[in-house]
Amino acid sequence: MTLTLHLSPDLEQYLAQEAQQSGLTLEALALQLLSDVVLKQRKTEAANLLQSWLGSEEKAEQQETGKYLIQALDEDRLSDRTLFPPELKGITW
User: Fold this and answer.
1) 82 exposure class (CB count in 10 Å sphere: 0-12, 13-18, 19+)
2) Domain range for residue 70?
3) How many CB atoms lie within 10 A of CB 77?
4) Which end of the chain has the lower number of beta carbons within 10 A, N or C?
């Protein structure tokens, strides 16, 4: 898919500098930034769904299931970085 964007000169200059510092082409940087936005939205939706489950009528069971899901998602990653760090509970999820 081809997408044409008309950027302000300031934004274009900023993106060009960021691309150069990252060692990426301008197109690769723009694609990476857009992908990050989509990924963040998906994570937010998943976290909101988990939170809605934790607030249902079967609270104790749902909390246990939610904790298990969070643990399983954090353990089943190629990265050592967790998706749901405890210090961000209530802030980002």
Assistant:
1) middle
2) 9-88
3) 10
4) N
Given a cut of 70, whether residue 56 has pLDDT beyond it is no
Cα distance between residue 33 and residue 41, in whole Å: 13
pLDDT score recorded for residue 71: 84
Task: Please report whether residue 42 resides in a domain.
Answer: yes
Residue type for 65, please?
T
As given in the structure block, the two tokens for residue 6 are: 């008309």
| Local structure of residue 82 (DSSP, 8 states) | -
Residues 72, 12: Cα–Cα separation, whole Å: 41
Please provide residue 42's backbone torsions phi and psi, each rounded to the nearest 5 degrees.
-65, -40
15-19, 31-35, 88-92: which range is least confident on average? Answer: 88-92
Q: What is the dihedral of CA 17, 18, 23, 27, to 10 degrees?
A: -100
SS3 76: coil
Please state the pTM of the whole predicted model: 0.50
The answer as to whether 2 is a domain residue is no
